[in-house]
Amino acid sequence: MDRIDEIYTKWPFFGARKIVVMLAVAYGIMVGRRKVRTMMKTLGLEAIRPKIKLSIPNKQHKIYPYRLRGLKIDRPNKVWSADITYIRLNGGKFVYLVAVIDWYSRRVLSFVVSRTLEGTFCQEALKAALKKYGTPEYFNTDQGSQFTDKRFTDILKAKKIKISMDGRGRAFDNIFVERLWRSVKYEDVYVMGYEDFYECEAGLKRYFRRYNNERPHQSLNNQTPKDRYENFELEKAA
Hints:
The protein has 238 residues and is α/β, with parallel strands linked by helices. It has 2 domains: 2-48, no CATH class; 79-233, Nucleotidyltransferase, domain 5. 45% of the residues lie in helices and 14% in strands. A hairpin with a 5-residue loop joins strand 2 and strand 3 (108-114).
């Protein structure tokens, strides 16, 4: 399963047939398409639509339109977004990670690790980001029930934040968080092989500190997310 997860994280548009080929070519693992399809189902993976089990819509919840198409992201706190991914621990158990990210700087503003997909951990992450970093103009998520929950959207409405949600099946409307998950898994999760919840939570705390403060991004002219976020006013004045 870990190899399937690695392949899918790198190539989220691959279905079972291509993953069978990659397992054989890259890792020398010979396995049938049916078994790969079963394991993908267990992990909640489907080509082009990652985390399908993590983002199940609730038909009773209000869905908001995608408001970011063509929007110029020219400052910190213009657009924040949140997303959920899973982390498979050694031994086969899963934990779930939600993060809030600033699109302009790629800074991870908050994160929470949860043993379940019950939506309160997403509300906790949102409140933590708002408390520490203020208020964005837009907040974008997918249409998963954790984010369409009235308790979540009411927090945004109370702050007069414009709510945006990805189009259904459009995984890359939230592309910056998708890229973050790829970095998290390849640079930390697959390397560390976390044994339990507490080890995973502590390890991710260390990773996100390095990611924000030490890791330069080529797309940010080799600035770190922290510098990009905090130096905006200085650069603007200059």
